Amino acid sequence: MSDCTPLSAVSRRAVLGGALAGLGGLALPGFAAAAPDGVELVDSDIMWSWVHRMTAGGPRFTGSDAHRRWIDYLAGELETFGLPVRRYPTTLKYWNAGSWALTVTDAQGAVHDIPVAYYWPYSGTTPPQGITGELTEATGADPTGKIVLADRPITPLVAGAFAAVAIDAQPRSLLLDAALEDSSRLWLGAQGPKLRDLRDRGAIGAVGILPFDPADAAGQFTPHQQPHDGLPALLLDQLQGNRLRESMRHGPVTATLTLTAETNDEATIDYLAAELPGNGSRAGAILVMTHTDGQNAIEENGAAALLAMADYFTRLPVAQRDRDLLFVLSPAHMTAPSSAVHPEAWLDHHPEIADRLVAAVVPEHLGATQWDAGGTGRAWHATGKQEILVLGVGNSAELAQAVAAELTGSDLDRTLVARPYTDNLYGEATGPYRRGIPTVTAIAGPNYLVRVSENGDLDKLDPALAHRQTRYLTRLTTRLLSAPWLPAPR
């Protein structure tokens, strides 16, 4: 969500009232839990071996060598299940950082190397020797020829704010129990000044200050869908930001900012699609989709879930597959729509695929445990809970009922069924949702979602939880294969 209710605006009574209003309106006539079908999902160890394989290859920045190797591996795995894989090359403005640094000279002439938390993705590039200019605040009158210092704030948010979109939850008391849990996230709400605006005002670079301590600011790949605005920028933690501002209070500070990157405005990157025919009893196809790019073990481990589901359905007797299944892996979630072909545009370009789809299932960010700071500016810590999983549902009341009914019969905990928010279905599922396709996504949003770290934050994920979440989606998809209430294809 991008413009969520502030912490101070949510009361416990309002949360409870909103949640009960959403849950009380849910009726589930004719929906029972899906029956076992005798075919088992691959076990947790096999599924998690795919996540390990992905993470061991390093960050899969969009279009990078590591990303392309992962795409090739996924294609090979799908083919081992007997699925023919088709590649769809799409355009990409490729940008991948090489080196970055920040050095400042204070008013007394002393030179300081400033520890950089990370680079600002896709922001811009400098020559190898960097660019030099006086530091100025973003609120300053004229940034011409200067490097702008700007806060990257986080909009305060609590989990109770989800009451506004809640349909169902497990347990039913979830939004009351978790009402005041901090859900503030770096990628939600205001993200500081626009780089293009600063460039147009004459700035030559920018430094963003994250509201985190050094350990938690390190490696934050944000904003992950930053347009290529041509203004090189870096990110600092709060401690270093305060240090720079203290120096600026004693007189002019000059900075040399370096950010080199490999770029190619005419690159391409592949979508993968693999079809499993059904028995033809019902028209149309069910789309199972996620994305292949990402920078850690959670972003994006949905591909492991997709592999597990593809393997399962190839072993499910065709007599139990009334509809076709289409498995699609998108390559360009972690970059701006202006720099790549996102799923909505890809589906628009391929009506021979899009017009057959009667439902979509999108797994993302599975197995997440909760790490909470209890508010911005404090170090993260493990809470011992799982991160709330959102089952976002759009374009079909019947699908929402099926999602809730399947949840009731499942072993999932801390899971919320939610309506779309401001024409958005919380992630990669937004593409099929905006095309009017009945769509469900399973997605979590932990603090560490967009962070680059040495181990990919693999230690913060729970393989058994990811497996249970994938099993839920598999059972739901099985239900959709024969659902009589899904719309006819176009």
UniProtKB/TrEMBL annotation:
The keyword Nuclease does not apply. The keyword Repeat does not apply. Gene3D superfamilies: 3.50.30.30, Zn peptidases. Keywords: Signal. Residues 1-34 form the signal peptide. InterPro entries: TAT_signal. This is Peptidase M28 domain-containing protein. It comes from Nocardia brasiliensis (strain ATCC 700358 / HUJEG-1).
